[in-house]
Amino acid sequence: MSTELMSPRYAALDLWPTGDAVQAMLEGQLAAAASVQSQAGAIAAAAEAAAERLQGGRGRLIYAGAGTSGRLAVLDGVELAPTFNWGSERVVPLMAGGMTALLTSVEGAEDDGDAGEQELFATKPTPCDVVIGVAASGRTPYTVAAVRAGATAGALTIGIACNPGTPLLAVCAHPILLDTGAEVVAGSTRMKAGTAQKIALNLLSTAIMLRLGRVHDGLMVDMRLSNRKLRDRAAIMVGTISGVSRSQAEAALEQSGGRIKPAALVALGAAPDQASALLQDAGDNLRLAIARLRGDAAPAA
Length: 301
Description:
This protein is 50% helix and 9% strand. It is an alpha/beta fold. The protein folds into 2 domains: 2-211, Rossmann fold (3-Layer(aba) Sandwich); 228-294, Helicase, Ruva Protein, domain 3 (Orthogonal Bundle), CATH 1.10.8.1080.
């Protein structure tokens, strides 16, 4: 596996001046980011297929992984709630060794394929679900078994790995290969491989939310207003979308229970009940709801 190789480039790394070592590690991180470029099309295709399964309030994102890969997957899923108001019941994290393994290494857990299969089936997967398996090696038995079980249940399966020709990429419907090569510190996949996986997961989940209408003009119009900073940001969003003053935007948010999408419609002249109805009829797509409020033709995709 390329991620386990020792690179001659970093021979005697421990004898290098610290500045040179840091520069070499930075170069590795930049190379990791570049490795995602060739997979942009694969990530986009996976996102579109996932959004189709998840449309209309159906289905869940089920993340499966071990070690660093699993922790990155869990982080991606957790962040969907505040950013896109994605319900916690619609994110299922499966971590080899359980959630204890987020903070403490659970030896041998990643080698337990039976546990991966059983834990995936325990979630009662359906064809509306999307299973995302993440493994730098592409061979982790727990992750491969979980993804295979998801496919058996009819769920859409996506695999993210950093080695070509590996089982994870073979068992999933949408393989994403991040060929990061040898690490600066041989086998330390928390570095280059981890960086590439984090980028790919961010791109994938954000693109899914984009296709589900949870982004409008590059704005997080479904975010939860959990603190003062986010309430201020929401008022700016409503004002930007509707063209009203700050005070009018804040009033619209107040009338709409702090929800940005209906607040934007209220700021544009809709009554609160009408705003809710417009969004429901538009499949929660703010752009389409605005067009209908204005009596415009449906906007282009």
